[in-house]
Amino acid sequence: MATCRPAGPAAKSAAVSDTNTFIIPVEPGFVPGKKAAAGAVALLRKLAPKADEIEAVTDEQVRFRSCGESFDAVRCPACRNEIDVDTWHEWMDADHADDAGFRLRPIAMPCCKRSFTLADLAYEEPQGFSRFALRALNPETVFAKAALAKLEAALGCKLRVIHERI
Questions:
Q1: E strands, 66-146, where?
Q2: Domains observed in the chain
Q3: 9-26 pLDDT, tens per residue?
Q4: What is the pLDDT of residues 76-115, one digit of tens each?
Q5: E strands of the chain, at which residues?
Q6: Chain-centre distance of CA 54, in angstroms?
Q7: For residues 80 and 75, what is the distance between their CA atoms, to the nearest angstrom?
Q8: Single pTM value for the model
Q9: Of 2, 139, 120, which is closest to residue 70 (Cα–Cα)?
């Protein structure tokens, strides 16, 4: 686990690591217009005024947004059986192409034989795939449903929150 040592009296005394909070569209390929993204950044600044940094990130390809050190397990969304981490890594490697990012092709689950993409899997703690993300470094805010609903309205899509411990 990464730790931080206080640099002096102004340092955050309780912090043991930084947290990137990613707020991503549920639909991995969704990218809002520039005006909507700028509005969402302005709204996020109001919702998380203590954040060290806030930005909108748009990637050319679908990327994996990890929870970092908080990763616990990945499960089949249908039968909730845990998926072996080595198997999941193989799926991640097979689905990713350097020139295209994650393609998110259906994969037959070893447990129930139903097909799901990597984005459909049940991650403990939440993780996801997206081209677009709002990112807040150390927001010191829990994004309640009402706050998330405001961001969804600003961007025009359903959203998922991922906390990446770094």
A1: 73-75, 96-97, 101-102, 107-108, 115-116, 122-124, 128-137
A2: 17-71+125-166 (3.30.70), 72-122 (no CATH)
A3: 333 434 468 999 999 999
A4: 999 999 999 999 999 999 999 999 999 999 999 999 999 9
A5: 19-25, 53-65, 73-75, 96-97, 101-102, 107-108, 115-116, 122-124, 128-137, 159-165
A6: 15
A7: 5
A8: 0.86
A9: 2
